[in-house]
Amino acid sequence: MSATAPPLSRDLIDSLNAQNLAALQDEYHSLGRVLERRGCAIDAIKQRLLSFSLAQPSWGTGVGGTRFARFPLAGEPTHFNEKLEDCAVVQQLSRITPRVSPHFPWDKIGDARAMLERATSLGLRFDAVNSNTFQDAPRQALSYRHGSLAHTDAAVRAQAIEHNIECIRMGEALGSKAITVWIGDGTNFPGQQSLSSSLDRYLESAAQIYAALPPGWSMLLEHKLYEPAFYSTVISDWGSSMLAAQQLGPQARCLIDLGHHAPNVNIEQIVARLHRFGKLGGFHFNDSKYGDDDLDSGSINPHQLFLVFNELVEAELRSPADFDPAYMIDQSHNVTDPIESLLSSADAIAGAYARALLVDRAALTEYQQGNDVMMAFQTLRRAYNVDVTPIVAMARYERGGAIDTIAAYRQSGWRPRKARERRATSSGAGIV
Q1: SS3 of 423, please?
Q2: Is 5:122 a contact under the CB 8 Å cutoff?
């Protein structure tokens, strides 16, 4: 294996940290005194953050697009090795995103060992692998236009199953321990397919993928309310996902993408329900305003992100032995530099977790048991109102990251340098 080679200058990060450290220490100790009066030790919260981490999506390093057009960014990645370089930048600055989740065939380069060596040389590891049967790949024998795992044609289903099993094999070589399965199967017209038979076909196909799982692996089932199937989607909600996971077996669990729900759905309650039945597999963090917008985490509804983590902290307290959800950022960066959006989102997610750790659990339980509605709500609101920026930044600094991640990134000149070195990408029509 090659020696670890961080992409950015360590001297630059250290120099910028030196300029910001005194102010951070002052803010950290000031907040510590505030929290101490509440009976909360700031160092204990920081220690929890030091053990918290997220995965990055390889595809999140590139520029996404609207449904009608894509506007490329100079210096964005053009192949998988360049995606890994950008992920390494995010990790070096944030120190909370050490794993990369690849997507096949988008990231298929033919040599898993070379992929692993390159990631290791950049200080990265691999997270869950993702299969893609929602679009046709070049030279693919059969089309997924009318579905994949739930297709009416057994030959198309077999092709989709084999692709998923191939992803598992690739994941084994990369050191991954999970596969995420999301399909776009469904209908756009009433009567297009039998709603019952399509689910039966999905379950039959998923069972064959499940049978190929190595010991210790998880199969994460991702649901989505709509798109590209706008009339009916085969796995459209957490209930369908949980029922499928229960039928498949203990290695199958449910993955929650925060954007894959109807407006105003209580996502934090879904967290509690899935954990209750042992099927909480993990999260894809993003945000939304109108639908599945894939906006930056915490950019629209940071309070909801806090409430989700409040349930996660509660779930871990209830059963710490089997609490191990997979956390990953999953966003489409259409108008920002993707690296800056990933840095901003990592910060927002860590902040939501820190606030959830500040909730006075004993008081909350007492108020809930006594039906004191206002005080139960105020207990959560009191934690949410704390500016946890000093805790998050101090944890990041102690891990070796940048106190001010976006400022450090901009001063590094990474994007202008890559704009000179990398070939330009095309504009193109559509989201991908």
Answers
A1: coil
A2: yes
The pLDDT tens digits of the residues spanning 300-316 come to: 999 999 999 999 999 99
How sure is the predictor about 3, in pLDDT bands with cuts at 50, 70 and 90? Answer: low
pLDDT 10s digits, 208-238: 999 999 999 999 999 999 999 999 999 999 9
Confidence (pLDDT) at 428: 57
CB 391 within 8 A of CB 354: yes
Residues 250, 278, 269: CA angle, nearest 5 degrees: 145
Q: Are 150 and 34 in contact (CB under 8 A)?
A: no
Provide, for the chain, the percentages of residues in helix, strand and coil under a 3-state DSSP scheme, each rounded to the nearest 5.
50, 10, 40
**126, β-bridge pairs:** 100
pLDDT of residue 131 exceeding 70, the answer is yes
> Any idea of the CA torsion for 141, 147, 150, 155, to the nearest 10 degrees?
-20
Length of the chain: 432
Q: How far apart are CA 372 and CA 198, in angstroms?
A: 47
**What phi and psi, each to the nearest 5 degrees, are found at residue 147?**
125, 175
**In the chain, how many H helices and how many E strands?**
15, 12
Q: Is 3 exposed, middle or buried (0-12, 13-18, 19+ CB in 10 A)?
A: exposed
Q: Which residues pair with 56 in a beta bridge?
A: 100
Tell me the angle at which helices 302-318 and 267-276 cross, rounded to the nearest 10 degrees.
Answer: 20
Q: What is the pTM of this model?
A: 0.96
3-class secondary-structure state, position 384: helix
**Rounded Cα gap, residues 269 and 244, in angstroms:** 19
